[in-house]
Structure formats: C-alpha cells, structure tokens
Write a structure and sequence with these properties.
The complex is a heterodimer of chains A (about 120) and B (about 110). Chain A has about 120 residues and is mostly beta strands. Chain A is about 0% helix and about 50% strand. Chain A is built from no helices and 11 strands. In chain A, the strands form 2 sheets. In chain A, strands 2, 4, 5, 6, 9, 10 and 11 form a 7-stranded mixed sheet that branches. In chain A, strands 1-3-8-7 form a 4-stranded antiparallel sheet, with no helix packed on it. In chain A, a hairpin with a 2-residue loop joins strand 5 and strand 6. The N and C termini of chain A lie far apart (about 35 Å). Chain B has about 110 residues and is an all-beta fold. Chain B has no helices and 11 strands. In chain B, the strands form 2 sheets. In chain B, strands 2, 4, 5, 9, 10 and 11 form a 6-stranded mixed sheet that branches. In chain B, strands 1-3-8-7-6 form a 5-stranded antiparallel sheet, with no helix packed on it. Chain B is globular. Classes of the chains: A mainly beta (about 120), B mainly beta (about 110). At the A-B interface, strand 4, strand 5, strand 9 and strand 10 of A face strand 4, strand 5, strand 9 and strand 10 of B.
C-alpha cells in the first residue's frame, strides 16, 4: 500500500511569489493534517481536514495560507504571497477515519520550502 | 490551548535504557502518541496511550498517567540506529494533535 506522498520535495522561491504544495494521503484515510517544522523546532499544527471539510484550521498563521481538499482526496496548501518566515518543512499526515484514527498518523516525507 | 514539555536532549550508550518524559496541559485530552524522526525525515508513529498504564511494543514502551498529565517513552537495549528525535503528541477529543518540541536522543558506542 502506498504511503503519504508530497510534492514537490523541495521548493525554492523568492519573496512575494506563490507556491502550492500537494499531499496525497493514504487511500481511505478521511483525516488529513498539515504541519510545519521551522529551524528544527516543534512540529507545528496547521490544520486538519475530515474528508473535504476543515475540522480545525486554528494553526494557519495568516490569510496568506490557503488549504483545500476538494473531493476529500488529495490536498493542496497554497502560500501567496510567500514571506521569508514561511521557510521550513511542511509535513502532511493522514489517518484512519474517526477520532481514534488521530492517534496514529502516517506522515509524508515533507516539502522543504525555502523563501529567498 | 495545549502545551507539552519534554527534554531537549538525552544521551545514552548502546545497550542502555533511556526514558523520555513528557508532561502536558490540555483541555479535551484523548490520548498521547509518540513519534520518531530521523534527520528531518518523515516522523513515524511509535506508540499511543489512551488509558493509564504501560504499552509495550518490542524494545519500546510508553506509559501514561492521566491524573498526573504525564507520560514517558522507554527505550530498551539501545542501538545506534535509535539516535533520532522523539516527539510526544497530545491528541484531543476534537481530533487535533499538538506536538512537543522533540527530544534529540544520541546513542554512543
């Protein structure tokens, strides 16, 4: 069974540009999460989808970040316009349906974003 | 909101036992999970506790005390490959996971 995949693996953009990150969860996983890790610090929660609905987006830093999950399958995270402080590794994770599924999340390899 | 505390660094020798503690403050607590991350790669799930007590999975065990808002990850028979970052994560009954800052474990020969 394929794991969580993310694209691209690396992205280098200039301040003010737009970048879209993609996450393909494990098939059948209703729960999809986005996280960010900056400078080797904590894995910071961004948001949580249940199917196509945003269950919790309290971690989204500001309105420059937009996440979508049309059809409840893959998800995209768009940063527009990108700022220097947006640099970091963006992880996507998915888990089985239901509340208990949140206890065991399967992470993708991450997208390393560098904003110059 | 949620907050977690775990040590930033731990060092141990091969074959030893190490315990990584995690204390948390949260509302709507559902469970405590542990993840391992090597060199910035994808975090991988290790263990989960929803009830008080010890859960054992091979060389790794995890403990939870809900009344003390405290848990730990116990690693036995340490191997060099266990050198990694270890994160505790609180899961709330709304399905949200909040991760600690991580503990960097260094295993020495």
């Amino acid at each position: 069974e394929a794991g969580v995949t993310q694209f691209p693996s690396h992205s280098v953009i200039e301040k003010g540009q737009t970048v879209t990150l993609r996450c393909d969860p494990i098939s059948g996983h209703d729960n999809l999460y986005w996280y960010r890790r900056v400078m080797g610090k904590e894995i910071k929660f961004l948001l949580h989808f249940v199917k196509e609905s945003k269950q919790d987006e309290s971690g989204m830093p500001n309105n420059r970040f937009l996440a979508e999950r049309t059809g409840g399958t893959y998800s995209t995270l768009k940063v527009q316009p990108a700022e220097l402080e947006d640099s970091g590794v963006y992880f996507c994770a998915s888990s089985q349906p239901g509340l208990a599924g949140g206890n065991e999340q399967f992470f993708g390899p991450g997208t390393r974003l560098t904003v110059l | 909101g949620q907050s977690l505390e775990q040590p930033s660094e731990v060092t141990a020798v091969e074959g030893a036992i190490v315990q990584i503690n995690c204390t948390y403050q949260t509302s709507g607590f559902y469970g405590l999970s542990w993840y391992q991350q090597h060199d910035g790669g994808a975090p991988t799930f290790l263990s989960y506790n929803a009830l008080d007590g010890l859960e054992e999975t091979g060389r790794f065990s995890s403990f939870l005390s809900r009344s003390d808002s405290y848990g730990y990850l116990l690693l036995q028979e340490l191997q060099m490959k266990d050198s990694a970052s270890y994160f505790c994560a609180v899961v709330t009954n709304a399905g949200k996971s909040t991760f600690g800052d991580g503990t960097t474990l260094t295993v020495k020969p």
